Amino acid sequence: MLERFSLFPEQASTVAGQVDLFYFFLIAVSGFFATLIATLIVYFSIKYRRRSDSDVTPSIHGSLKLELLWTLIPFALTMVMFFWSASLYLTIRRPPDDALQVFVVGKQWMWKLQHMEGRREINELHVPVGRPIKLLMTSEDVIHSFYVPAFRIKADVVPGRYNTAWFEATKPGSYHLFCAEYCGTQHSRMIGRIVVMEPADYQAWLSGKDVAAGAPAEPPQSSGEVLFTRHGCATCHRGQAGALGPALAGLFGSNVQLAGGGSVVADESYLRESIVNPRAKIVEGYKPVMPTFQGQIDEESLLQLVEYIKSL
Ligand code: CUA
Predict the structure, then answer these.
(1) Which of 92, 175, 95 is nearest to 134 (CA)?
(2) How far does residue 166's CA lie from ligand 1's centre (Å)?
(3) Ligand 1, pocket residues at CB < 6 Å
């Protein structure tokens, strides 16, 4: 009975213990001061009560010692909270370089995921234990939120932009996945699970049949190449002399000089924006002649196109 009643979800990722420890610290500090203040209110109201009609309130003009004490102690405590939580936040926000990437697209009302080897899933994510997993996430329609309590991660997926989250699962098992942002009538049913497997089992699973697509799994990079050809991107972006558009080889991660001054790092969000809203940022030396592909390519295909451009 008691085993089934737990205040906290299971700790199943590398950061879960750290997040809980910080949370317990906050509860302990709040609890200590709440108890102290409540006790002192009762104690003082008895000790300093008015004993007779002739009792006169003493006139006190401050105490430097006391004021320093009640300023410096809270200051020190809140600084501890700030630096501790900031360092934890940075750990949670920055995926390690060796992380395996997984695409996540939220849509009313399901989670669509794709592994870099090609396999797709819906409302389920299989991952190996002990490997950092980086999620590159976006939404097809409204804001959803990818929430895995056992991993202590929650990140919004926002239409029109990419967001990332990462985790490293520490023990095999099946863990709840929730949408934590009200996104319409079926919001409460936008749930799923994360299946954490031993590395060997994961490899076996990865080479299995792609149920979602009903076809052999194709890596997103290859799907992206097909889309690149189908939409005629190469006409302007093959890197020919005098081409209408800038060459794309080696573009990812580089610093792009923009017309009218300024520069931008060519990350996934920039690549995506340049496809759906090409006139938002014009590369120096080029004209705003590219047509928009807004509404013509869905988010999953955009992720694949971006993945292909990254590989050039
Ligand atoms: Cu999607 Cu709530």
Answers:
(1) 95
(2) 19
(3) 106, 109, 144, 179, 181-183, 187, 190
Cα of 223 vs centre of ligand 1, distance in Å, is: 27
Alpha carbon distance, N-terminus to C-terminus of the chain: 57
Total number of residues shown for the chain: 312
Longest dimension (CA), the chain: 100
Nearest alpha carbon, ligand 1 atom 1: 144
* Whole-model pTM over 0.90: no
- How far is residue 39 CA from its own chain's centroid? 42
**3-class SS at 16?**
helix
The model's pLDDT over 72-98, given as tens digits with 9 standing for 90+, comes to 999 999 999 999 999 999 999 999 989
Q: How far is the CA of 147 from the centre of ligand 1 (A)?
A: 10
Residue among 286, 86, 120 at smallest CA distance from 209: 120
